[in-house]
């Protein structure tokens, strides 16, 4: 028995749900009928289940003896439950519960929600769709809305005849009533958790069905977007086969539909058999999209399909396990993407994402990857970089330490043992321990149960560790003290890689020219002693790609924490040489953006010169246009160089080229965003309106996003405020928060935009999904030149916490202070 008031009694379990919903898209309401077969495990006269924003009728329960009980449910809004108390006890055994109910199709992008959008023909369309994770199934039908209560679902939908409707299972029957409505009955699902149930109603079209070793796979999309679906089919088919083979278990659903939703708060959601996606994460034309956009679609599809096993088939027992669900899917998505297109070197690119997580994790306001969750809403704060990217990185480190085959065997063992059931994190460590004979639980506890990460130092023949932090703690620190660190070291003389497990005590190492974090999978910062650095430095350009990425990232961490000087960072950036991998350049560009934000107006020419010194040779080397036979990743390097030179670098050459391409509307997918940033920053008369026009008539979701997000680059305060207003009043709810975040991050207009957003707090609540609120306000924390403003921002957000992600916002606020220190130091070095 549990004492957590948010958890339901386990005396009664749902076994099989029959839910019939009739949405009314005009009035934004729905009617529902529910019958649930129950297993009464201990005799009781009270039954509690979850329901919120539902109007329930009388509940009828038929017990194992055939006796019928009726009662009026009592709602509890705080715990989001409905409780029925019966006159007599229900005996142990099976029972059925019946209830009719009414609900609302909300516009908050959660539960069963309604969304309207203007299609490509200018017609307003309405859809009704679901997003249940973590605990919003209870807004659509009464249910035992905890992951542990796995059950079978039988969904029936009555919808307008001209619309399509989908759910987790194949359609069993479709009856038109001749009155403008039809009823679709969907088959039973496998035994699974409520948060994976889904249904979608709207004017959709479908691709051809592809048979993937017996699994029917389709892409479903808003009308007229079918030409953007073949790539998703290709990736989906690949991932289905790859995971079936990796896990050695067939796909657990009966079919797989992947559907693009025009307004979606997350990237995607792994509903079994009916995966929902934001349009940009599913629909893409590889011929016109950028490499980054194509990679993103691939990675998201692989991520969601990995969840069909890890998450859907085997599910966390309670919400603190959500990190493992997401960390594992992130890790597996990288592995699958890497297998799909080895030439993309996806694990190297992942180095950039990992570093984004470590940039948070080096703050005292970081958190342990896993923490105790009492109210399910606490787990909402887990959907962040620390869960996905740090969690995924820690799993990658473990995989490299155990060996790829041993790791896979442990995963197979875990999935087989717990199929159709629930687990806690340590179940996975136990399975990996059985497969490997290594102390997995002991190692992983140091990474999962405390925040932060170490810095490993190689000095005087020893490896030692110390906690890494960007600065001194202003209050309590969540950074841990000691980790069990798998450290791989390669000798540049012999090429031999040696594994060490570094704990609290110094570990002696052999050899002289040594690369720490060989292969680059270790989740830590590295510091070399003077002699050790001198032995490695001349070879930076010859290291493996990911090792180079890490050296640059560690140098940036050193600069941001004011531990190394700007000149030293620039020297390392220049020593990279002609690197075709964008991951290194991404970090260098991001660092120089911060330097630019820190610089005074008088220092701006100096920053310009640094940008030109580093990026002009790369642009000269690779040119504005793709060349025959060039590396797949070079287009991203090109885009970074154009973007840096065209904006901060103020390069006349790049600006002229950007104008020419924009005016002749001859932008190429890979460099489009970089040229658009450049054009927007130049602010020629009429361009702003032209950007909006092209956004409105864009031919793909990616093109739409490019124009929309580039609006943030227009320089005047009036333009920034006008764009901010449109985010609230005109653009889609899924996009507004992202663009507001970019506007808030503007070096010059950030504070004005932030003040505008805080003046519309009611609209923030009304218009944007709670999990996106942090996106709006996070951007301004890159404004580092006015400590007084930093205090104003912090005071406001302490008094007015954002929904769901206050912890993420606190991290951004701490980073704002670190940034202010960095800015002060770097200004003395320019
Ligand atoms: Zn996920």
Summary tags:
830 residues; alpha+beta; nine-stranded mixed sheet; 25 helices; 21% strand; binds zinc ion
Structure in words:
Helices cover 40% and strands 21% of the residues. The longest helix is centred in the last third of the chain and has 22 residues, at 806-827. The termini are far apart. The structure holds zinc ion. Residues 270, 303, 307, 326, 329 line the site of zinc ion (ZN).
SS field, number of helical segments: 25
Unreliable parts: none
Mean pLDDT: 95
Oligomeric grouping of the chains: single chain
In percent terms, what proportion of residues is strand?
15-25%
Major sheet, described briefly?
Answer: 9 strands, mixed
What's the overall geometry?
Answer: globular
Task: Give the number of DSSP strands.
Answer: 31
Unique ligands:
zinc ion
Radius of gyration: 27 Å
Summarize this, please?
By secondary structure, this protein is α+β, with helices and mostly antiparallel strands. Helix content is 40%, strand content 21%. Strands 1, 2, 4, 5, 6, 9, 12, 14 and 15 form a nine-stranded mixed sheet that branches.
């Amino acid at each position: 028995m549990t004492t957590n008031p948010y958890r339901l009694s386990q005396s009664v379990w749902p076994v099989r749900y029959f839910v019939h919903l009739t949405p009314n898209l005009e009035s934004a309401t729905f009617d529902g009928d529910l019958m649930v077969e129950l297993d009464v495990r201990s005799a009781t006269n009270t039954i509690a289940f979850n329901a919120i924003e539902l109007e329930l009728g009388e509940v009828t329960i038929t017990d194992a003896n055939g006796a019928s009980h009726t009662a009026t449910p009592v709602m509890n809004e705080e715990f989001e439950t409905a409780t029925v108390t019966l006159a007599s006890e229900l005996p142990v055994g099976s029972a059925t519960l019946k209830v009719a109910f009414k609900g609302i199709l909300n516009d908050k992008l959660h539960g069963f929600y309604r969304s309207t959008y203007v299609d490509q023909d200018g017609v307003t369309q309405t859809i009704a769709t679901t997003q249940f994770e973590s605990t919003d199934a209870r807004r659509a039908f009464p249910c035992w809305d905890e992951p542990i209560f796995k059950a079978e679902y039988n969904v029936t939908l009555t919808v307008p005849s001209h619309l399509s409707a989908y759910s987790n299972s194949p359609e069993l029957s479709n009856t038109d009533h001749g009155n403008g409505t039809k009823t679709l009955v969907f088959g039973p699902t496998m035994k699974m958790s409520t948060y994976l149930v889904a249904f979608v109603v709207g004017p959709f079209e479908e691709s051809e069905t592809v048979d993937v070793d017996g699994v029917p796979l389709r892409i479903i999309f808003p009308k007229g977007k079918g030409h953007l679906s073949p790539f998703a089919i290709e990736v989906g088919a690949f991932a289905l086969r790859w995971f079936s083979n990796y896990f050695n278990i067939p796909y657990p659903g009966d079919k797989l539909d992947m559907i693009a939703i025009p307004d979606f708060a997350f990237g995607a959601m792994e509903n079994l058999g009916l995966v929902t996606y934001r349009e940009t994460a599913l629909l893409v034309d590889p011929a016109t999209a950028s490499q980054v956009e194509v990679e993103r679609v691939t990675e998201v599809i692989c991520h969601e399909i990995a969840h069909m096993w890890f998450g859907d088939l085997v599910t966390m027992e309670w919400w603190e396990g959500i990190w493992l669900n997401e960390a594992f899917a992130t890790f597996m998505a990288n592995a699958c993407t890497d297998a799909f297109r080895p030439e993309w070197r996806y694990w190297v690119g992942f180095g950039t994402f990992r570093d984004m997580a470590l940039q948070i994790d080096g703050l005292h306001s970081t958190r342990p990857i896993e923490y105790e969750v009492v109210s399910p809403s606490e787990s909402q704060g887990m959907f962040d970089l620390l869960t996905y990217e740090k969690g995924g990185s820690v799993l990658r480190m473990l995989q490299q330490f155990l060996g790829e085959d041993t790791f896979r065997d442990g995963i197979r063992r875990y999935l087989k043992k717990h199929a159709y059931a629930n687990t806690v994190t340590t179940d996975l460590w136990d399975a990996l321990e059985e497969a490997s004979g290594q102390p997995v639980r002991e190692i992983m506890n140091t990474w999962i149960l405390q925040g932060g990460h170490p810095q490993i130092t190689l000095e005087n023949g020893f490896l030692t560790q110390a906690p890494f932090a960007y600065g001194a703690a202003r209050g309590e620190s969540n950074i841990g003290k000691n980790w069990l660190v798998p450290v791989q070291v390669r000798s540049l003389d012999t090429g031999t890689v040696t594994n060490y497990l570094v704990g609290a005590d110094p570990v002696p190492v052999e050899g002289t020219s040594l690369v720490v974090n060989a292969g680059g999978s270790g989740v830590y910062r590295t510091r070399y002693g003077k002699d050790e650095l001198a032995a490695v430095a001349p070879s930076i350009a010859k290291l493996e790609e990911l090792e180079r990425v890490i050296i640059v990232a560690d140098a940036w961490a050193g600069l941001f924490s004011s531990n190394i000087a700007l000149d030293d960072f620039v020297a390392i950036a220049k020593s990279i040489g002609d690197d075709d991998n964008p991951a290194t350049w991404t970090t260098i560009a991001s660092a120089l953006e911060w330097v630019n934000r820190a610089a005074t107006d008088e220092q701006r020419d100096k920053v310009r010169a640094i940008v030109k010194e580093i990026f002009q040779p790369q642009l000269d080397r690779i040119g504005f246009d793709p060349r025959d036979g060039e590396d797949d990743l070079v287009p991203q390097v090109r885009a970074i160089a154009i973007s840096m030179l065209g904006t901060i670098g103020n390069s006349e050459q790049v600006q002229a080229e950007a104008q020419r391409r924009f005016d002749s509307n001859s932008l190429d997918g890979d460099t489009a965003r970089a040229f658009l940033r450049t054009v927007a920053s130049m602010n020629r008369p009429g361009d702003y309106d032209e950007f909006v026009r092209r956004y409105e008539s864009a031919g793909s979701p990616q093109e739409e996003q490019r124009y929309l997000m580039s609006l943030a680059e227009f320089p005047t305060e009036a333009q920034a405020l006008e764009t901010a207003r449109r985010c609230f009043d005109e653009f889609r709810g899924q996009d507004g928060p992202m663009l507001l975040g970019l506007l808030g991050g503007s070096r010059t207009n950030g504070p004005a935009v932030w003040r505008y957003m805080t003046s519309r707090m009611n609209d923030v609540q009304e218009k944007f999904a709670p999990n996106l609120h942090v996106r709006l306000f996070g951007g301004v924390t890159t404004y580092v030149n006015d400590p007084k403003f930093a205090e104003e921002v912090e005071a406001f957000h302490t008094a007015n916490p954002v929904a769901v992600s206050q912890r993420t916002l606190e991290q951004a606020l701490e980073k704002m202070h670190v940034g202010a220190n960095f800015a002060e130091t770097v200004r003395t070095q320019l």
